[in-house]
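Researcher: We plan to redesign the surface later, but first we want a full-length starting point. Tokens attached.
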């Protein structure tokens, strides 16, 4: 037991009228919403990297936090693991997520790095025997080390490809051994800076081969979790091959991976792609690609990925609407891929961020469930497309009518359709009744 959170009691649900800053006001994990507990809907996870590895730096300045595990090698990593599970228990968190580089220091060789990761993995396994916190997903950091400056799977050097594959093998196996429900392939540098030195087709072929290797090995070791790709449009690479859900789906479809891999969708990444979060969720759901999500937000005045905690109930409620209409997240969950601001120095600040984020998700979930139960919104949207339920429209949609037949039908029936209102303002007002 460390003393990092000394004096802080476990966070409990106290209700909307509570003024306790270290209590849940809306997140009541056992409350039933639309047939499931709130926790089963949200499946919240703590991001190991932002919570315990982030040092408070930004593009113009370095470390502002002073954590006792910094700069202390493997012993520091062991202390960090101790503190992490104390934090999970304080929040009563059901899940966490990690990169290998978050949990253990890199060694002089891959073998040494993997041993370090395994050493911390053993600590995780022991902690998980007495903690209710499980592993939502693991992933390998294939972007921070300078060897990956030109990508990992897409690197022009085959030795880098091989090194990355060996690194992923270790983390995938550890994820499986810890009971992880997903494995994420985050291609932080799977893109390019300039076409002057790039073969796009070659690099995409490499990335596809890499993913096939991961999928095949997952099947070999008996991993039954989901394999996920996390779309991101830019930053740090100027042109990312995993730009958004649509781009990822097209890539997976081309390389016969669309039935084997789904998407982990992040709010901030959707924003950087000039999409809304609910757009990416709705598209992924329509394609059968919705796997899991990262909960955060970006600062609309900054053009980069600020990874702030979610605090906008109306926006998150629309996201939950898409998730609920899709039947939920299954093996996925809401990973808090969010970090406190670099001036938030105190241990309690870590709790405040997650408490606020969970309260926002709880309010959003209940709003979305109420919207669906009310039915007025769905009825209006269904009525807008009701014409497609008619026999002639269904025949067109199913390919049972040729262009000539359709044209003849229009002329014979003297069809002259008139525009109808999309009722956007009314629908916006309707949504606001629930949020």
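Model: Full-length starting sequence:
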């Amino acid at each position: 037991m460390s003393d990092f959170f000394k004096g802080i009691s476990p966070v409990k649900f106290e209700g909307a009228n509570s003024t306790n800053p270290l209590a849940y006001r809306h997140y009541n994990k056992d409350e039933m919403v639309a047939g499931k507990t709130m926790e089963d809907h949200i499946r919240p996870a703590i991001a190991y990297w932002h919570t315990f590895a982030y040092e408070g730096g930004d593009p113009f300045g370095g470390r502002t936090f002073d954590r006792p595990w910094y700069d202390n090698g493997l012993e520091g990593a062991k202390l960090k693991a101790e503190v992490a599970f104390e934090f999970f228990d304080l929040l009563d968190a059901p899940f966490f997520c990690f990169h290998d580089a978050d949990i253990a220091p890199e060694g002089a060789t891959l073998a040494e790095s993997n041993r370090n990761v395994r050493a911390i993995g053993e600590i995780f396994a022991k902690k998980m025997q007495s903690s209710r916190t499980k592993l939502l997903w693991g992933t390998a950091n294939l972007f921070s080390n300078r060897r990956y400056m030109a990508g990992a799977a897409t690197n022009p050097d085959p030795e880098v490809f091989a090194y990355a594959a060996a690194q992923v093998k270790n983390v995938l196996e550890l994820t499986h051994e810890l009971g992880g429900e997903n494995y994420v392939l985050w291609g932080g540098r799977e893109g390019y800076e300039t076409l002057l030195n790039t073969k796009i087709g070659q690099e995409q072929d490499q990335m596809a081969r890499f993913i096939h290797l991961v999928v095949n090995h997952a099947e070999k070791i008996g991993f039954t979790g989901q394999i996920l790709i996390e779309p991101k449009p830019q930053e740090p690479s100027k042109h990312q091959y995993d730009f958004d859900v649509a781009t990822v789906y097209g890539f997976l479809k081309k390389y016969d991976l669309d039935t084997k891999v789904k998407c982990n969708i992040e709010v901030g990444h959707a924003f950087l792609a000039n999409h809304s979060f609910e757009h990416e969720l709705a598209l992924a759901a329509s394609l059968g690609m919705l796997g899991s999500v990262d909960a955060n937000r970006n600062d609309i005045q900054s053009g980069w990925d600020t990874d702030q905690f979610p605090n906008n109930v109306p926006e998150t409620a629309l996201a939950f609407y898409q998730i609920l209409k899709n039947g939920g997240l299954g093996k996925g969950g809401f990973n808090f891929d969010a970090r406190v601001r670099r001036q938030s120095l105190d241990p309690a600040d870590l709790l405040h961020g997650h408490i606020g984020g969970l309260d926002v998700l709880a309010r959003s979930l209940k709003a979305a469930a109420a919207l669906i139960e009310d039915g007025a919104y769905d009825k209006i949207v269904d009525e807008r497309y009701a014409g497609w339920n008619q026999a002639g429209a269904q025949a067109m949609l199913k390919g049972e009518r040729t262009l000539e037949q359709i044209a003849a039908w229009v002329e014979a029936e003297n069809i002259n359709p008139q525009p109808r209102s999309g009722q956007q303002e009314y629908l916006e007002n309707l949504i606001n009744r629930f949020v």
